[in-house]
Design goal:
Length: 315
């Protein structure tokens, strides 16, 4: 009798371990593709600049300085053509290397997103540089890593993929005209955002700057992280003028940033609105075909992490 009970205990333990392992793999490892992204969904043809942004378009044109052959002018730290002007600058603040891409566009259509493997799903991942290269990105950063979450709004390229609410979650909304908005899930539905002209909704956060003021405190990390880390953020200065910011971290060379430090830094750059994207080992800045920063998960090895999605600038 004792041996029989012991045997059942062993069987139960094995089954429990197997089930727990499966749940963990299903949550974090096993890829599930729900929808393939069609070419028409990946990119919208750039339209003429809308009223009120002609000064931005003229600024881009004035700075582009195309060569006589009409090809873009590209250097290690700049990219200029008729519609896109990018200047990359490296800063040293808080014992950390911070990379800032200052971007001016003639049309919001050049600010885009892309999904790993051209697919919406769970745990579907790819390196930022790989997604960027496949989509012809000039500049790219990692996105919100939506695929590691079971809830939270997902709108990409004007397509609603997920509308389940993550209560209290602050999202970044990028509208068709390129303007930014910060919303809280549950207070407005994903369908309503889409109807109001939302083209992209990124669900990570928190908001760093709202209406020109820092929106986080020194003690507030909103459960995302409470130490210095590699960070990725995106901000807007004014119409069609954006900031892509990535910091290194977790190494002897770069300590990393707190959310408050990141927000304060972006405020100093003139951001009117800014939002924190997925960070840590995901933080990656791609420009002109190269990885600019030093992505790392644990500081022991510089290596890109595969992610669910990117935000990028491209034709």
């Amino acid at each position: 009798m004792f041996r029989k009970k012991y045997l059942w205990a062993v069987v139960y333990s094995v089954l429990l371990t197997a089930f727990t392992t499966y749940v963990a793999l299903d949550t974090f490892v096993i890829a599930r593709v729900y929808t393939m992204v069609q070419p028409a969904q990946k990119q919208t043809e750039p339209s003429a600049p809308s009223a009120g942004v002609s000064d931005v378009a003229q600024s881009v044109a004035d700075s582009s300085s195309l060569s006589e052959t009409g090809v873009p002018v590209v250097s290690e730290n700049t990219y200029h053509d008729d519609h896109i002007a990018i200047t990359l600058t490296e800063y040293r603040e808080y014992n950390t290397s911070i990379y800032v891409a200052d971007v001016q566009l003639s049309s919001a259509a050049y600010l885009q997103t892309a999904l790993a493997q051209d697919a919406y799903g769970r745990n579907v991942t790819e390196k930022t540089s790989e997604i960027a290269a496949r989509n012809g990105a000039i500049l790219a950063v990692n996105g919100d890593y939506y695929g590691s979450q079971e809830s939270g709004y997902v709108i990409r390229g004007g397509v609603l993929y997920r509308e389940s609410v993550s209560n209290g979650q602050e999202d970044l909304v990028i509208y068709e005209d390129g303007s930014f908005g910060i919303i809280t899930e549950g207070e407005v539905s994903a369908a309503s955002l889409l109807a109001d002209g939302a083209r992209e909704v990124l669900s990570f956060g928190p908001a760093l700057i709202v209406d020109g003021a820092v929106a986080v405190t020194e003690d507030e990390e909103v459960g995302k992280a409470k130490t210095s880390n590699p960070r990725t953020a995106i901000g807007v200065v004014d119409d069609l003028h954006y900031l892509f910011v990535v910091s290194d971290g977790r190494t002897d060379a770069s300590e990393g940033l707190t959310l408050y430090q990141l927000a304060s830094f972006m405020e100093s750059l003139g951001a009117n609105s800014a939002y924190n994207l997925d960070g840590g080992g995901s933080s990656t800045l791609y420009f002109n075909g190269e990885i600019v920063n030093h992505p790392t998960t644990n500081g022991n090895r510089i290596q890109e992490r595969s992610v669910s999605d990117i935000v990028y600038i491209g034709d």
